[in-house]
Automatic annotation (TrEMBL):
Residues 213-245 are annotated as: Disordered. The chain crosses the membrane at residues 63-83, 90-111, 131-152, 159-184, 190-208. Residues 86-202 form the Phosphatidic acid phosphatase type 2/haloperoxidase domain. It comes from the Bacteria. The keyword NAD does not apply. SMART domains: acidPPc. Keywords: Membrane, Transmembrane, Transmembrane helix. InterPro entries: PAP2/HPO, PAP2/HPO_sf. The keyword Transmembrane helix applies. It comes from Actinocorallia longicatena. This is Phosphatidic acid phosphatase type 2/haloperoxidase domain-containing protein.
Length: 245
């Protein structure tokens, strides 16, 4: 199962790489979107500088939306899954969050894009700019968490969970641009790669479930392993799985 997921991540990354490199090309001199990307980044950063009461909240987001915050949340869920005996689900979560981190680092090395050179950046961070690790990990971490918890919730709560995950991911990316440490294209690439990683491991996990003769599910609606609900519920093994929609 883990091998299948890793192969899926590599294949999807290979498919997403041309689009990612195309986004990276916007910082090349003469690129069609280079000026728009640079001006948009400077405008967002400038808006925060013009409204200085936003500076401290923006600086705080560096810690609130830090990649290790999302990794910590996922790893805490993994620990809970292992305690409850949901080893397959735990393995999926570990592969997903690990693949996201490694692919983000690999892309940074391949692209090697400098951070924005703004007159008055609000924050300074080392390392490459493309893609945004904060934005990418926000997508991977929040989506992984939702896909685990969907087995325990149903109805409007599922839509609410996805809405919260989307808002968190969006806010994380916008704040990186506002701080002046990433271009808009860095953030968009982070969102795309993060979504690609989650999609790859989820598709691979569902393919494995079907090969084992398990009932097919719609992961985005029911979670990656809805049959694990009695195991992972805080109410214990006696808890019933939510009705399928």
């Amino acid at each position: 199962m883990v091998k299948r997921m890793l192969i899926a991540v590599v294949v999807l990354f290979a498919a997403a790489l041309p689009l990612t490199l195309l986004l990276a090309a916007v910082d090349r001199e003469g690129a069609p979107l280079a000026d728009l990307d640079a001006r948009g980044t400077a405008d967002i950063n400038g808006f925060v500088l013009d409204h200085r009461w936003l500076i401290r909240p923006m600086q705080a987001t560096s810690y609130i939306f830090h990649a290790w915050v999302f990794r910590g949340i996922v790893l805490a869920l993994v620990a809970w899954l292992l305690v409850r005996g949901a080893r397959r689900l735990a393995a999926w979560a570990v592969v997903t969050i690990t693949a996201g981190g490694l692919l983000g680092l690999l892309t940074k090395i391949l692209v090697d894009r400098p951070r924005p050179d703004l007159p008055t950046p609000i924050a300074h961070f080392p390392g490459g700019s493309f893609p945004s690790g904060h934005a990418m990990t926000a997508v991977v971490g929040s989506a992984t968490t939702v896909l685990i918890l969907l087995a325990l919730i149903h109805g409007i709560w599922r839509w609410l969970a996805w809405t919260i995950a989307a808002l968190i991911s969006f806010a994380s990316g916008v704040c990186r641009v506002a701080l002046g440490v990433h271009y808009i294209s860095d953030v968009v690439a982070g969102w795309l790669l993060g979504a690609a990683v989650v999609a790859a491991t989820t598709i691979a996990f569902e393919a494995w479930r079907r090969s084992e003769g398990r009932t097919p599910v719609h992961p985005a609606q029911e979670g990656v392993e809805p049959e694990a609900a009695p195991q992972i519920s805080p109410l214990g093994d006696a808890a019933e799985a939510p009705p399928r929609t």
